[in-house]
Amino acid sequence: MQKYCLGIESTAHTFGIGIVDFEGIVHSLINDIFIPEEGGLHPALVREQHLNNFKTVIIKALKESELSIKDIDLIAFSQSPGLGPVLKIGALIARMLSQVLNIPLVGVNHCIAHVEIGRLMCKIDDPLTLYVSGGNTIVSAFESDRYQIFGETLDLAVGNMIDSFARDAGLSHPGGPKIEKLALKSDKYLPLPYTVKGMDLSFSGLYTASKRLLESQDFNVKYNLNDVARSLQETAFSMLVEVTERALAHTEKKEVLLTGGVAANKRLQQMVHSISNEHGARFAVVPLKYAGDNGAMIAWAGILRYQSEGEHEIGNTIIKPKERMDYIKIPWRSGD
Ligand code: AMP
Ligand code: MG
Q: pLDDT (tens digit, 9 = 90+) per residue, 253-286?
């Protein structure tokens, strides 16, 4: 009989439930996304929304999969990394369901889940992954039992940086898609800080300088918002691509996976595609439904962990807001 895992994503803006069977078929994916009216993600407000809506999301997901909660064989939840108060909600719901219904429980690292759903959906075996989202900017690949981090941001995540700039420019959240559209209307490049330190990236100087361009007397005289949007994108994406390319040359991986919400950006796709071609690597973008935060990726990573290590004791399901993906061994790839 087929077995099913219910995955709970709750690291930041998205409360997501995904139901996936042990063969990797997704039977439902339902998200409830917090959209700030102003400012960034306030953990207390996000937590309130997730608490108010979790039941509806779970019921919708079960309905979509035509399953009852009694058909669920495994509960997986995002245990790390993320906003502490928000992670706690997912962990609490997962533990409660597991204890009350007597269903095994596994905790999952959110970043590892992004890579695993990408490998599943893109039928890719051993990629170098560029994971770019509202909260993360990580270049990673499997080496010596783990997903090693080859490069990452030292400050802001690229999605957060673009969203913050967009907010300063008076655009509503999420800013990424709006900046992408504006950038297409320009062919100017305004010099902006390009900060790659070794294999790591820093976006705060780029953010501040772009914001200053909006505040300058020259704004809407010598250049406009489209030009700043294009310059910001070109600079940020070139930085990402430089680090990805160096990691690709070092690891000699034959596949490149682009994931996270920012993976929707066509210009970024084009740039990463182009360096992949130059290195003879196959390029794949995770289907957008699975590229942003979602419960199906948590369910699938949970299945992989459960099959190789079994369930987690309740005492081992404490949230770890700062846990890096390279802290964790990946036993299901031990043969690689
Ligand atoms: P995630 O955190 O993975 O759910 O992704 C959300 C982030 O993706 C936000 O920062 C969005 O602004 C960003 N995003 C979504 N679509 C695009 C796009 N077309 N270009 C750039 N960023 C985008
Ligand atoms: Mg994410």
A: 999 999 999 999 999 999 999 999 999 999 999 9
- How many domains are there within the chain? 2
Ligand nearest to the CA of 138: 2
d(CA 306, CA 328): 14
Distance CA 62, CA 72 (A): 10
pTM (whole model) above 0.90:
yes
Where does a domain end: 266, 285, 304? 285
Is 89:10 a contact under the CB 8 Å cutoff? yes
- Per-residue pLDDT tens over the stretch 213-260: 999 999 999 999 999 999 999 999 999 999 999 999 999 999 999 999
- Host domain of residue 14: 4-115+292-333
Separation of 187 CA from ligand 2 center, angstroms?
Answer: 31
Please check whether residue 248 is in contact with residue 104, taking contact to mean a CB–CB distance below 8 angstroms: no
**What is the Å distance from ligand 2's center to 300 Cα?**
15
Ligand (nearest to CA of 112): 2
Which CATH number fits the domain that encloses residue 56?
Answer: 3.30.420.40
Q: How far is the CA of 61 from the centre of ligand 2 (A)?
A: 20
